[in-house]
Specification:
By secondary structure, this protein is of the alpha/beta class. The protein has four domains: 95 residues, Beta Barrel (OB fold (Dihydrolipoamide Acetyltransferase, E2P)); 146 residues, Succinyl-CoA synthetase domains (Rossmann fold); 36 residues; 63 residues, no CATH class. It contains twelve helices and 13 strands. The protein has a five-stranded mixed barrel with strand order 1-2-3-5-4. A five-stranded parallel sheet has the order 7-6-8-9-10, sandwiched between helices. Strand 4 and strand 5 form a beta hairpin. Helix 5 runs parallel beside helix 6. The chain starts with 31 loop residues before the first helix and ends in an 18-residue tail after the last strand.
Length: 434
């Protein structure tokens, strides 16, 4: 080992960065940086080791996990970090309280002096292979579309009959019945008891599921089981059960374990309930809430109807306040006066037209009378015509002895022609002479 001593020329100690931590002493200390480098170099030579323990802390920050792993029999613990790139390769259900084995490698941060372990692998103790197979099956079924949201069926608002598949005399059965009846006292159940773990779990559950799915009275099916370790819940991730649930036509609710439990049944079911109690709350409505809602709707409806009626009454009053509706006879009075004026005007125009046309007729009658042969006869003239009806216009037409009929202003008489006589002039014959 080399020992650094003060410089005999100057009497000063060598620089701290030049002193190896093993050779440091009071008069020649090493630096913190050199000490950290030495520790890191020493820790880096350890390599990776596999350890077994219980996860007591699991903090997710920015995709990375910082946690603690505790010994199963003592209080000894180590801190670890899990980078996001490594976490993607690990089981997705790792959580606080899990019994795991992990591959860790020591690491020392020289800037902060913190000592921790980086994890490159981690799995559940005793379940490693099973959980890896489970994750592969989950990826396979997801690729087939069995977990797609488009496949999910809506639950009925108020099922007439609920099918319940659960263990006999189990707490899950009691929780579902008790909470459902508290919410809706008239709720009805049809229960089938099956084994909820072990070799009989899957075949009995599938058989009960198919029987209830074929029952037309069952509106929704609840598969319920209380909590348990991952090993006891593996039956609810069995491919046979998952495919039977996917093929069912009745809506199915998965209520397996607790919030942190996540069997494949949760992914394929139409609704995942965190607990059996939660399932009871999800499948039936709360009668108190529904009554309150009905009351609110009634109030809203009453308010809307009252508002509408008030609005219509106001409109009706507005219409009734108008003159034509306030005194409808005034419209008739006004119109009757107008009709009276129009009738009087029409009568006046008709009388005027009759008077004008009367005068016109009188004028025409006077003209016609003046031009009428009767008027001429009335002045003393006469018309002579033979018995054959020929009017005598020439004396030669009535030779002597020819009988003629003489028409005067008042009547006719027979005469006999004495022949033509000599004319003495136009004034020699007076009115009334032939």
């Amino acid at each position: 080992m080399t020992t650094f001593r003060p410089d005999t020329t100057t009497g000063e100690a060598p620089p701290p960065d030049s002193v190896h931590p093993r050779d440091s002493r009071g008069d020649s200390p090493t630096s913190v940086s050199r000490l950290n480098d030495a520790i890191r170099g020493f820790v880096a030579n350890w390599g990776s080791v596999w350890v077994e323990g219980e996860i007591t802390s699991w903090n997710l920050r920015g995709g990375n996990v910082f946690g603690r792993l505790k010994d199963l029999t003592t209080d000894s613990a180590i801190s670890f970090r899990l980078w996001s790139s490594t976490r993607e390769r690990l089981p997705a259900d790792l959580k606080v309280g899990d019994h795991v084995i992990a591959c860790v490698k020591a690491d020392y941060f020289i800037k902060t002096g913190d000592f921790t372990f980086a994890i490159s692998a981690m799995r559940h103790v005793g379940l490693g292979d099973q959980l890896e197979n489970l994750e592969r099956l989950r990826a396979k079924l997801r690729a087939e579309g069995l977990f797609d949201a488009s496949r999910k069926q809506p639950l009925p608002f108020l099922p007439g009959l609920i099918g319940l598949i659960t263990g006999e005399n189990s707490d899950a059965e009691k929780d579902v019945h008790r909470n459902a009846e508290l919410r809706w006292p008239q709720v009805r159940f049809r229960t089938k008891h099956v084994a909820v773990q072990g070799d009989r779990c899957v075949p009995e559950t599938v058989a009960a599921l198919k029987a209830m799915d074929a029952d037309p009275d069952v509106d929704v099916i609840v598969i319920a089981r209380g909590g348990g370790d991952p090993q006891t819940l593996l039956g609810f991730s069995d491919e046979r059960l998952v495919r039977a649930v996917a093929a069912a036509s009745t809506p199915i609710v998965s209520a397996i374990g607790h919030e942190n439990d996540h069997p494949l049944l949760d992914d394929v079911a139409d609704l995942r309930a965190s607990t059996p109690t939660d399932a009871a709350k999800r499948v039936v409505p709360d009668v108190a809430e529904q009554r309150a809602l009905v009351g609110q709707l009634r109030q809203r409806l009453t308010g809307r109807l009252t508002q509408r009626v008030s609005h219509d009454i106001a409109q009706l009053e507005q219409l009734r306040s108008r003159p034509v509706l306030r005194a409808p006879e005034s419209l008739l009075t006004t119109r009757s006066h107008e009709v009276f004026l129009l009738v009087a005007r029409g009568r006046e125009r008709i009388d005027r037209a009759l008077e004008t046309q009367g005068r016109r007729i009188a004028e025409l009658r006077a003209t016609l009378t003046a031009l009428s042969p009767a008027s001429t006869l009335a002045r003393g003239y006469a018309i002579a015509h033979r018995t054959d009806g020929v009017i005598v216009r020439d004396a030669a037409q009535a030779p002597a002895g020819e009988p003629v009929i003489i028409t005067v202003g008042r009547g006719s008489f027979a005469a006999q022609s004495q022949g033509e006589i000599a004319e003495t002039g136009p004034d020699s014959v007076s009115d009334g002479q032939t």
